[in-house]
Design brief:
Distance between the termini of chain A: 44 Å
CATH class of the largest domain in chain A: Alpha Beta
Number of domains of chain A: 2
Strand order of the largest sheet of chain A: 1-2-6-3-7-18
Number of helices of chain A: 16
Shape of chain A: globular
Oligomer: homodimer
CATH topology of the largest domain in chain A: Aminopeptidase
Number of strands of chain A: 19
Largest sheet of chain A: 6 strands, mixed
Structural class of chain A: alpha+beta
């Protein structure tokens, strides 16, 4: 009988070609023009699962983009994991900053460049490869595995909660093993134990009912661009601390243990600044850069626009100005309450002569932290040590995995992050890439994970683990 | 011999068709993709002049867009006017706000809708029509007329100064009669005696060297959108007064006479607000709305942008943010100095962690005011009274005619505004239109102007008029 790892090695080239096909599909979930592409990607994933031998794969419709599910649950008495990932991707903008077209995968220096390759297409393909290797060599998996791949992660998973709620029994598991998340660094294996929450809002400031000539009308009316700049500027103090009243109320303080762990990590501001090309760090005083990234809440503008933004000049006093905001939250901050605080702040700071309105299509998710002694973490630690010959470091995540909140509140289970993307792979930015050696390392680690989990006692994973 | 006005009337439909052909040419001078269209418009104007009987019409190359010139100078002993207009237009953005396509002229309710029809294609066609009517009926014009139509008015006429300087002798005249400018209102004839100056700048705030994920990096670095909002907000105080140090130094105060003239005009804030669709007026306290529009300087944002501005959300911490500014100036304010003051202010307000740079392709023009007793004004007053049966009101202009500054400094002559566009015709905005009855009224008025000017004594127009 062929060994699982040998099978994986023998099919490595085929799997790379598969990955290339997958990333060619522009499954941009934020853009309604790509609705059919998103569906095409879902279909691609379901077909890939069936080819792997997970025969009940299905494309499930939702009120948004589809959810792909599949399961193999014949390992009697063994633990059950719910493998999570997402097949949707961020928009490729600004397209002109890409060195190769975002949806034409291009290999350079052992990296594959394409939109979505790191977030999350390559990482989510790995457990499918590994399931296939077990099923085609041994005929069975060491543990029970359910798959759940969504197409709305990049828009905040607005329909996943309803789907999970409606299918709670079918999705029941001991914990979630997430192929989304990303390793902190390329050179050291890490385990992520927290993610920040998210709260998004978009608003419009309206002045005159139509665009006006700024020469003729300038000076007589409030310019929505001036108003929005003042409103946005009021959201932070000069040191970068959020100036919205009560924003920090109840936010979990950073424990001494986490401060010590974080301080011990191999991280230096100078190297970080060189890497991101910034001249200086900036933000809340009293915290290190990593503390601010992982364990402190933020309020960030993601977009700000109004008036004429093309080449040359156009002397317009515009009718409207717009801003997009996302906050990152920590435990103790409720997304809906934070949003309400910001809305109240902006209302109170709306000057005379303009009006304020909010876009209602927004989303939020609470922050997440897995208990230190969770068995899924212990197995992850051992699996990573098998592949990388050293114990992983424990890190936080600045980004958000809103589904952790969903899985905890609906299914009552925790989420273990086990992704082989690396945080520097330009996700959500031009020239996103994935390190191809990780495609095999990840497969080895998922193999070790399934085997390691099979060796734990069922009681340790039966949902009785402590939860924060 | 056919009468001049009868000739005009008989050719009205042909001239309207001509206007439609003219506005179909998208001569957008700010956009390099329309370079050939701008040239096509210049060629169209030259051909139209030749058809009118002004046989020396020529398309003159410059370092930018071409200048069209022509002349008829056989009225010995009569005054000479230099007729000015421009054949370039503003960009049509936002195109989706137009009720009919911007470059497909569409007639509704006696108005012709098209980009550039009011600013300045219909008004500049009128004197060509009138010259033709004189030449084809009487065989000569009552005065000497030179034509100068430029293609860079909407970008601040950057090459017109050099062109006028190099052709000063050829363009010599007693004064300029401008077909650009616009009447204040549709129901009352007005004479414009001042225009504000202009100074433009565009700047970029740069943070990280590339777009970053706002979850991963937010809180660690300064977000260029936050920085630009703070910088822009610092440019005004809360009451709308410009907060740049020394901005108002030397600005000509509004005289008691002008305050009285302006207060006597039929203008009401409520009607104005209803017309432009704004909830309130806003700006420097101590001045009326018209005073702020015509006789006080401003600093207006025309564009502000950065980050993700498409549909949905994208959690990006952008690398750059941008802003476009134009100021309107009054006599006593030097455009270059004002620009330097704003640059210094922005430099002083650039926070840690971001860098500031300025776009160098900017332009400026001093404010303008014609002496009250200029003969060209007197003739204009009489010509308007002939057509409209009432004396015109005296008004200021909020916008800028940078060429006044050029003509005064290079040719030593003043500019009389004599346009039949109206200020409410959505110039620089979607659904620009021109009132078609003005196309004939304007032709009658230009006919009366040329005839009236011929009756003045040569000495009154020979460049000896008082200048401010």
């Amino acid at each position: 009988m062929e060994d699982v790892l040998a099978y994986l090695e023998r099919h490595h080239e085929r799997d790379l070609a598969d990955l290339q096909s997958f990333v060619r599909i522009p499954s941009v979930s934020t853009d309604s023009r790509h609705r059919e592409d998103v569906r095409r990607a879902a279909q691609w994933v379901a077909t890939r699962l069936i080819d792997a031998g997970v025969t009940d794969a299905a494309v499930n419709d939702t009120d948004g983009h589809p959810v792909v599910t599949a399961s193999w649950t014949f390992a009697e008495g063994a633990p059950t994991v719910l493998v999570y990932g997402h097949y949707d991707v961020q928009p490729p903008d600004p397209v002109d900053r890409w060195d190769s077209p975002p949806f034409e995968p291009t290999e350079r220096d052992g990296k594959l460049f394409a939109r979505g390759v790191s977030d999350d297409k390559a990482p989510m393909l790995i457990p499918i490869r590994v399931a296939e290797a077990f099923l085609k060599t041994r005929g069975h998996l060491p543990v029970n595995v359910k798959f759940l791949f969504e197409g709305e992660e990049e828009v905040g998973s607005p329909h996943l909660g309803d789907f999970v709620r409606a299918n709670a029994e079918r999705l029941a598991a001991d914990f979630v093993l997430s192929a989304d998340g990303g390793m902190w660094r390329a050179d050291i294996p890490t385990l992520t134990v927290s993610a920040r929450g998210l709260c998004a809002l978009e608003f419009t400031v309206r002045g005159p009912g139509k665009d006006l000539h700024s020469g003729r009308h300038g000076g007589a009316l409030h310019n929505p661009l001036h108003a929005i700049a003042q409103m946005v500027a009021s959201l932070h103090d000069e040191e970068g601390r959020v100036a919205v009243a009560h924003f920090y109320d109840g936010a979990l303080a950073i424990s001494e243990a986490i401060r010590a762990d974080t301080a011990a990590l191999p991280f230096h501001d100078e190297a970080y600044l060189a890497d991101v090309g910034a001249s200086d760090t900036f933000g809340e005083s009293g915290y290190s850069t990593l503390e601010r990234q992982w364990y402190r809440p933020t309020l960030e503008l993601n977009g700000l626009w109004g008036g004429y933004i093309g080449e040359g000049s156009k002397t317009v006093l515009p009718s409207e100005a717009h801003a997009k905001i996302t906050c990152r939250l920590v435990p103790g901050q409720d997304p809906a309450r934070i949003r309400a605080l910001i809305e109240a702040h902006l209302r109170a700071h709306t000057p005379r002569g303009v009006t304020l309105s909010f876009n209602k299509d927004d989303h939020g998710a609470a922050a997440y932290r897995i208990p230190d002694d969770h068995v899924g973490l212990t197995v992850a630690r051992e699996a990573l040590e098998i592949v990388y010959d050293r114990p992983p470091l424990v890190v936080g995540m600045g980004g958000s995995i809103p589904i952790c909140d969903t899985f905890r509140s609906v299914l009552g289970i925790d989420t273990v992050f086990f992704s082989f993307a690396v945080g520097d792979e330009n996700i959500h930015a031009p020239n996103e890439f994935f390190r191809l050696p990780r495609f095999f390392e990840g497969a080895r680690a998922w193999t070790a994970y399934f085997e390691g989990l099979a060796k734990t006692s069922p009681s340790a994973t039966s949902g009785t683990v402590a939860r924060a």
